[in-house]
Design goal:
The strands form 3 sheets. A 6-stranded mixed sheet has the order 1-6-7-4-3-2. Helix 8 packs antiparallel against helix 12 (339-358) and helix 11 runs antiparallel to helix 12. Helices cover 39% and strands 18% of the residues. The chain has 360 residues and is of the alpha+beta class. The protein has helices at residues 17-24, 82-93, 140-151, 176-187, 194-199, 202-209, 215-222, 259-273, 279-291, 298-308, 312-326, 339-358; strands at 5-6, 33-42, 53-63, 66-78, 104-105, 109-114, 120-126, 228-230, 239-242, 245-248, 255-257. A hairpin with a 5-residue loop joins strand 6 (109-114) and strand 7. The protein folds into 2 domains: 5-127, Phosphorylase Kinase, domain 1; 140-358, Aminoglycoside 3'-phosphotransferase, Chain: A, domain 2 (Alpha-Beta Complex), CATH 3.90.1200. It starts with a strand and ends with a helix. 37% of the residues are buried.
């Protein structure tokens, strides 16, 4: 992996015209002259409470007789989160994030840099702000299938020290046990609605609380399936339309693992916002696309699909999801749907966890 470039400025807001010219030179094909540039900070919900910040840099420039605009999406990381920069840089340098797909569009990474003090790090990519529209469609399966089929079974994926096996999908936050205990304790209160207790039964809650003890066993089982390159944060907020292509952004969690785990994580996130989303039709579309390119059987997809629900989705059930239902979460990535919708989503995730446990 090449060294990360060192900028002249300490803070992103202090970048000058010369710095912008250097960045734009990676985009412009002909000589240009900068007319103006503006930097704005982006806001929005984040699933992880890190120090990462997001910005948009818009540059107006003249090339020949034409005036043009180019927008960059910039992510700023604190020193504690520099691992994400090294991960994406390594995947990009290794050719895993080359934009040579027929249906899928990966943002072009233009620069990886840091300030002179080594306290802030930046990833600069082309911006696709206007492309993110509406709920995910079943056809989305074809796009992620193109990524998976390209790298299906490539053993050299394991040779990259930065690409971890299911790092994001298998992550359990340190305070998981205490948060689960606190939320489940609230369920014993007299004012809890009966419909909540029908989904979050004592038996189900106890099963989920015991899953961390099974984590190593689950991961060992998942390692037996074909691996491929995984985005590991594939869901509505990170995908959009660009003509006939699908844009997939936010590669901070790129790694490797069985394809079914990616689909499980997609469904677990999607069903919380769209409880009626049909994973059966989604998986069928996915299998149709992938099986046209590689030899594929049901076990390659469905078994790791259900097993992966026993990882992060199980962690979230009695923390994030139950916390939303009980209104004890201070922050939530999702808009709080009506109680019925939240319970439908929770029940569907429970059912898939139960299927996954049957495979152990």
């Amino acid at each position: 992996m090449r060294d990360i470039a060192i900028e002249k400025f300490e803070y992103l807001t202090a970048m000058d015209r010369q710095s912008v010219e250097e960045l734009l030179s990676s985009v412009a094909q002909n000589p240009f002259k900068i007319i103006s540039f503006s930097l704005s900070r982006l806001t929005g919900n984040h699933f992880h409470f890190t120090q990462t910040q997001k910005y948009r840099l818009v540059v107006e420039f003249q090339s020949g007789r034409s005036k043009m605009n180019h927008a960059f999406f910039v992510k700023e990381y604190a020193k504690s989160d520099v691992g994400a920069v090294k991960l994406v840089r390594s995947a990009f340098d290794s050719g895993f994030l080359r934009n040579d797909f027929h249906m899928l569009e990966i943002p072009v990474f233009r620069r990886f840099s840091q300030n002179p003090q080594g306290t802030r790090f930046w990833m600069w990519a082309d911006d696709y702000a206007d492309s993110f529209l509406g709920p995910p469609k079943l056809e989305t399966a074809a796009f992620i299938g193109e990524l998976h089929s390209k790298w299906w079974g490539h053993i050299h994926l394991r040779g990259n020290k930065y690409l971890k096996f299911l790092r994001n999908i298998s992550h359990f936050e340190p305070d998981w046990g205490q948060r689960s205990h606190n939320n489940i304790k609230v369920l014993s209160g007299a004012k809890i609605k009966k419909e909540i207790l029908k989904v979050f039964t004592p038996e189900r809650c106890e099963i989920v609380r015991g899953i961390p003890r099974l984590k190593k066993r689950i991961l060992k089982k998942l390692e037996k399936y074909h691996i491929t390159l995984l985005h590991q944060d594939f869901w509505a907020c990170n995908i959009g339309n660009l003509g006939k292509k699908l844009v997939l952004i936010d590669w901070d969690n790129v790694g490797l693992g069985p394809a079914g785990a990616e689909l499980a994580y997609f469904y677990y996130l999607t069903v919380q916002k769209y409880p009626n989303f049909d994973d059966g039709a989604f998986i069928k579309n996915y299998r149709d696309v992938v099986s046209a390119k590689i030899e594929l059987n049901d076990a390659d997809v469905l078994e790791p699909y259900y097993l992966a629900f026993c990882l992060r989705p199980a962690f979230s059930l009695c923390t994030h999801l139950l916390g939303n239902i009980l209104n004890v979460n201070r922050n939530s990535l999702f808009n709080k749907n009506d109680l019925e919708s939240q319970l439908v989503a929770s029940d569907k995730i429970f059912l898939r966890i139960e299927k996954g446990l049957q495979l152990l």
